[in-house]
Amino acid sequence: xxxxxxxxxxxxxxxxxxxxxxxxxxxxxxxxxxxxxxxxxxxxxxxxxxxxxxxxxxxxxxxxxxxxxxxxxxxxxxxxxxxxxxxxxxxxxxxxxxxxxxxxxxxxxxxxxxxxxxxxxxxxxxxxxxxxxxxxxxxxxxxxxxxxxxxxxxxxxxxxxxxxxxxxxxxxxxxxxxxxxxxxxxxxxxxxxxxxxxxxxxxxxxxxxxxxxxxxxxxxxxxxxxxxxxx
Length: 231
Description:
The chain is mainly alpha-helical. It has two domains: 3-76, Winged helix-like DNA-binding domain superfamily/Winged helix DNA-binding domain (Arc Repressor Mutant, subunit A, Orthogonal Bundle), CATH 1.10.10.10; 80-222, GntR ligand-binding domain-like (Four Helix Bundle (Hemerythrin (Met), subunit A), Up-down Bundle). Helix content is 67%, strand content 3%. It has a two-stranded antiparallel sheet. The longest helix has 25 residues, at 94-118. The N and C termini lie far apart (57 Å). Residues 1-5 have low confidence and may be disordered.
């Protein structure tokens, strides 16, 4: 094994050991890790190896170096992890992106009954504003990704499910700007589908809501194949 390979193995081992130390000792947000000297002695690694492990943990949002204090444990959050795992260059990766779309479809369809039961009048009003912006932008020949994203975020907001929100946000980050030219010819149908979802919510009609959601996810980028055609 090369020296670089050995260091990589040691850094991964140190990463896991520091992570296990945090868990086994019940460290919480704001708690300090032991000093670099103590951790090196405890783990049996060099300072360079430990620093690489800590740097990786910082990149994942697990810890943060605090000048004058040391290394501080951060609050657990999936947002940073999902965003960094999924938000990467998608050139030549259309199959993976479409797989993410199918995951989003499965998640939203699975939670739509709970979302319908939990949604508040103020949320429905905000979604109506979103569809007005979506239609306005479409009529002006503009894309409307941000309004579309907010529309779906508000739909599931009342569930207070942070894991669901993190996963959907990460997939949206990948979707934004992906194959924009292929989507453009089919945006008129997308506008109508969003309006029908809000119509059903305003009428408190779950059957109409479920049908509108199913229609939204039955074609275009959510359908099998490589077409963006809507129907």
